[in-house]
Sequence to fold (616 residues):
Amino acid sequence: MKLTHFVSNLIVAVTLGLATTPAWSNHGLSMFGNPKYPPGFQHFDYVNTNAPQGGTLALSVMVSNSSFDKFNPYSLKGRPAPGVTDLVFETLTVLSLDEPNTQYGLLAKSIELATDNRSVRFVLHPQIRFSDGQKLTALDVLNAFKVLTSKKASPRFRTYFAEISTVKVIDELTVEFQFTRPGRDLAFVAGSLPVFSPKWGSLKGIPSFEQLSFEPPIGTGPYVLDRYRQGDHVTYRKNPDYWAKDVPVRKGMFNFDKVVYKLYKDRDTQVAGIRAREYNFFAETQMRYWCCQYIGKHFDSGEIAKEVVPHANPPSMNGWVMNLRREKFQDVRVRKALVYLLDFEWINDKIFDSEFKRVTSYFTGTPLAAEGLPDKAELALLEPWRQLLEPAVFGPVFELPKTKGPETYRDNLREATRLLREAGWTYKNGKLLNQKGEPFVIEIAGTRNQSPFMDPIYRNLTKAGIVVEKSLSDAATQRKRMSEFDYDISSVALRDARNPGPELWRNFNGADANRKGSENLTGVNSPAIDDLLQKLLNAESFTEQQVAAKALDRVLIHGHYFWPWRYLTNHYLIHNRNLTRPAQLPTHYGANEWVISTWWWQENDSQTTRLNTAAR
Fold:
């Protein structure tokens, strides 16, 4: 794709001149309130600007087919190489890691938000260069937007950017995004646009963007592709000419010479890999490994350290999604009954050493989560849809069943059976049958690497008379089935987001219910949900956002589209002792993004120097 294809857009944009609506311009934009960091700030508080440069950070990835087949993370088909999105490509803005929801300019030097919230302009840094040395301009931003919202890219990008009506090039370094509605949140959506060179693949004669596979990507990020071997590893090396090393949102960051991702076929091999020092950092999320597997001489000597650090990340809704496109799941009583059959307390106690907490809301642990009875403001949003909503929505918010006093699992099983009977399913001779005498069969889709906690879940389903069929496949087949909505129930974690509106829109808007490849995995198609999602997106204050979120939360919770699962409030880290971090912790951060962006290699002795060399 060539820049000349977009010359006409540039001409049109220039003739339009300046925006008619006044704009508010700044270095950063907070969803509500003011940014923590003032204009002219030098760096984020959670970095060390004097960190040594060098060394290798070696990470691990566990994938069922133990491979990747492309470096293009934006096309629909195939599995992209780990790390390419975060290391090679950059976006117009970035979120700080110590604020709930504030974006600062990265590719953009300044953000100019129109006072009516219907458009935003980004003025680019003039020194930005792609990894091939070419200057990045506003025309490249337009190109990236056009490609990502075309059929050449995954449809999830078209959904995500759907409320951007027009992108205009104002001049060489200024680009304007116009929105279909007024919304402060849309400036964040626009700011998250990744930008890549239109020359990517052109030297090898790749005719179309979606056909890019192993052609080295051309981005503006701190790292470039170094080498790779499918099924084994991919290595990125620091770009010595990285344009943003002195930009405030990058200062003191990306201190490693190389970042390596090693690939493993299963969890046991992956765990054995860090014990053998095949890689040097891992964030554990499975407590059965944390409690008992990270032992041995390297842990005893302190060469490998274990560390627990807190975070304030809002947990995403995760668990098992039920596919409403299947007739048996269209009755809310059936979906609610299945929720009663999940014994979270027993699994958490016996398998997870009680380290997990239960996801109870689509906004768990935040002020946006619904509580108790709906208040007057929530009722004002819910009342117009009363005829379409479950009556329970207007009562106390649903509390997940427990099995630690006074309730027991037998009580929950009895309630599940009652709900199933009301929905037309009768327990006979050990099986649940409908009026036609057909059994209730659930196919549980997943990959072949199933965790042991699934066995008690299967047993509880069979106690209710449900026939469980395990459909285990390789990762590629599973992804294809999910994109085509060919499943009954599947384990899913929704994307976590500090500003949840755009992400939840992707997951629950009715227009995407039957569009294959979309992220509406439940298949829900409700004008009430669509309306509440829009009100959440359109909120102009935290109070408005809170009311809309609580109302939406009630509707989604009482819809019982998920078996809610679990979350952690700490990061559980295993790392080589020479990997060193800043003293000040961020608050809203992923473990891998934190170590990649802010840690460094600090040599302690000759032995660990050899370990670092081996990791390369």
User: Anything to note?
Assistant: The radius of gyration is 25 Å. Confidence is low (pLDDT under 50) at residues 1-20, 606-616.
